[in-house]
Design a protein that fits this description.
The chain is an all-alpha fold. Helix content is 79%, strand content 0%. The protein has helices at residues 7-12, 14-26, 32-46, 59-78, 81-91, 95-142. The radius of gyration is 22 Å and the shape is elongated.
Length: 143
């Protein structure tokens, strides 16, 4: 993976991904089942029922992005090589770039999750220490 790329570079490509999905969806080269898969990816991203709800900042959006990119990749991989290359060339991208963007998104989501866990853990520790401190103060006043 190119270490110079980050989630911002993936976000910058969202308009291209959107155009590619629309072209694929409108294409007669794409089978009905493939179009259903594209629709499922979009439906997941706007549905209130998700693995990571969209109301969770960043993580919810990354979850949607990963699902959509994976659906897009699956549709392209299940197309014949000629059709796949035609649409990828029009979008000026490759399957490898889509894979890289998926990996960047997944890594970012994992990093976000680790950061969140660390904040929650530290908050819980602080809360625990504060409660214990107050309990000791109350016990000392009773004596």
């Amino acid at each position: 993976m190119n270490n110079n790329r980050d989630i911002c570079s993936v976000i910058e490509k969202l308009p291209n991904y959107t155009k590619l999905m629309i072209k694929l969806y409108k294409s007669s080269d794409i089978r009905r089942g493939q179009k259903l898969l594209l629709s499922a990816g979009i439906a997941y991203s706007i549905s209130p029922i998700e693995l990571i709800p969209g109301i969770i900042p960043v993580a919810g959006q990354l979850d949607n992005l990963i699902i959509i990119l994976r659906c897009l990749k699956k549709v392209l991989k299940s197309s014949n090589a000629e059709v796949r290359e035609k649409y990828l060339k029009e979008a000026d991208m490759t399957i490898e770039e889509i894979d890289e963007d998926i990996n960047i998104s997944v890594d970012t989501l994992k990093s976000f999750g680790r950061g969140t866990v660390k904040v929650v853990s530290n908050t819980a520790k602080f809360t625990g220490y504060t409660i214990m401190h107050h309990i000791k103060e109350i016990n000392n006043k009773r004596i």
